[in-house]
Amino acid sequence: MKTAEIAIVGGGVAGLVAAATLARQGLQPRLFEAAPELGGRAQTRIVDGFHFNQGPHALYVRGAFNAVLAELGVPVSGHRLRLDGAMATWGDVAHPLPTRPAAGRVAAPLNPAEGARLAEVLAQIGEGAAGDRGAPLRAFTEGLPGKVRMVIEALVRVSSYSHAPDEIDAKAALDQVRLSFGGVLYVDGGWRALIAGLAQAATSAGAVLRSEHRVLAIRREHHAWRLEFAGQAPQAFDAVILAASPTAARDLVADSRDIATAAQAARPLRMMGLDLGLANPEPGAEFALGMDAPTYLSLHSAVAELAPPGGGLLHLGRYLAPDEAPDPVHLRELERLADRLRPDWREALVHKQRLVGIQVAHDLPGWRTEGRRTPVIVADAPGLFLAGDWVGDAGMLSDAAAASAIGAAREASALLAGRAAET
Ligand SMILES: Cc1cc2nc3c(=O)[nH]c(=O)nc-3n(C[C@H](O)[C@H](O)[C@H](O)COP(=O)(O)OP(=O)(O)OC[C@H]3O[C@@H](n4cnc5c(N)ncnc54)[C@H](O)[C@@H]3O)c2cc1C
User: Fold this and answer.
1) Listing from the earlier edge strand, what are the strands of the sheet with 78-80?
2) Fewer Cβ in 10 A, N or C end of the chain?
3) Which atom of ligand 1 is closest in space to residue 388's alpha carbon?
4) Which residue would you say has higher pLDDT here, 339 or 2?
5) What's the pLDDT score for residue 1?
6) Is residue 261 domain-shared with residue 274, that is, in the same domain?
7) Residue 53: inside a domain, yes or no?
8) Average pLDDT value for residue range 123-128
9) Are residue 273 and residue 137 in the same domain, yes or no?
10) Does residue 370 sit in the same domain as residue 258?
């Protein structure tokens, strides 16, 4: 069977970043996506003018994904989240969110000593000097006064989606909070706009993108990899970038022990999401974080174009701990949160999206591995490279997907260059 350079399996952020990067180097990668549409978890569903991302999606201004979008010339129409007026909920009471307390001004219910300690810790985080690699976040926060600890752990939750202070690496977690200090963007039209831009960048440079092409198996054949499809002839490639979930990767490459081990070890970050499309909502809370409960509320349409004229798109979320089972009770908790902070939401409701235990990222940077996730290079599968938010050491969420995709593209093109030099 004749080989055809590089295949990419999976058409989410990671697969598309890899495709566009390789195509810009003059290669012609072929990308296969199982679903009818590209985008994976970065898809956006449009209903009556409401743009529903798969839960709340914020693009980190200083993150790897935003950097690669700029590098590829993908336009980003986004607006910074405004934190003036942001709230912290303590039980049923909402206070101002104490993210960066100005000198002498303390956000209740912290007392002046707690406010001063919080200011010190936030400054330390901002300098990148907080938290040790190879230790859990809890080892850092347990030395803090109780309310300060709760604020810091809430900031880790909102910036990393991890509700696992005993598992996440302290340095990785606090570096993610530091990244959030650089600001986040809510994207006009939802993340589908980013996906469309990436697909355009990839195809205009020569990549071939195929949706509705589910890969059934990836098998090693001499120096090549053979991809098998439903109802189509198999195709062979010199290199493969596998940009799907850990469990899909394990099932596709049945004879890689390394991938099976990585899939088994992965600790997914999951959440319960309640996304509400509202008609003519009354003014109300635009952003609120739970301090003593792992909750999130944000009106993304306050800054980005995501709703029809006069409408609002409100995202609520409840972060799940690693072994916590999704429970309908969590969604009711979120409705009660909305009752308190946006009391008119039930009358204004037009569309509702529920996300039950959705995997936000397929792995967290754990402290036992000093924040490292599984590598791009698979030792027992030469020529096959991994990409996704569960791969590599850099960043989290879509930034990890983008960074590992660039790493995988680099390795795959180096492999081809090496083979070309041999012949
Ligand atoms: C609720 C929620 C909130 C989030 N918030 C943020 C945020 O605020 N900021 C942020 O940066 N990130 C956020 N994320 C994470 C971000 O969406 C993901 O990190 C990113 O989209 C992952 O991209 P990916 O390409 O690695 O994986 P995916 O998007 O999962 O793509 C994998 C693709 O592989 C395809 N596939 C699987 N098996 C096969 C097969 N056999 N053949 C062909 N194709 C296959 C799948 O259909 C899928 O399209 C959030 C995610 C969720 C769910």
Assistant:
1) 59-60, 184-187, 78-80
2) C
3) 26
4) 339
5) 45
6) no
7) no
8) 91
9) no
10) yes
CA dihedral sign of residues 94, 98, 101, 107:
positive
Mean pLDDT, the chain, rounded, equals: 94
More confident residue, 159 or 222: 159
Provide the pLDDT for residue 285: 93
The number of domains in the chain is 3
Q: What are phi and psi of 103, to 5 degrees?
A: -55, 130
* 63 belongs to a structural domain: no
The answer to whether the CB of 198 falls within 8 A of the CB of 74 is yes
Of the listed ranges 14-18, 281-285, 295-299, 407-411, the one predicted with least confidence: 281-285
Pair 256, 384 in one domain: yes
pLDDT digits (tens, 9 = 90+) for 174-201: 999 999 999 999 999 999 999 999 999 9
* pLDDT above 70 coverage of the chain, percent: 97
Ligand 1 pocket mutation pick from 33, 37, 41, 158 by most atoms within 8 angstroms of CB? 41
In the reported structure, the alpha carbon of residue 313 is separated from the centroid of ligand 1 by a whole-number distance in angstroms of 21
Tell me which of 160, 181, 202 is where a domain ends. Answer: 181
Domain that holds residue 143: 87-181
- In this structure, are 139 and 150 located in the same domain? yes
Contact between 6 and 22 under an 8 Å Cβ cutoff? The reply is yes
Whole-model pTM over 0.90:
yes
Tokens 């993108």 sit on residue: 209
Ligand 1 atom at minimum distance from 399 CA: 11
Separation of CA 287 and ligand 1 centre (Å): 25
Is 127 found in the same domain as 200?
A: no
- For atom 49 of ligand 1, the residue with the nearest CA is 40
| Whole-number Cα distances in Å, 65 to 198, 204, 376, 404 | 11, 20, 17, 10
Question: Which residue has the least CA distance to atom 26 on ligand 1?
Answer: 388
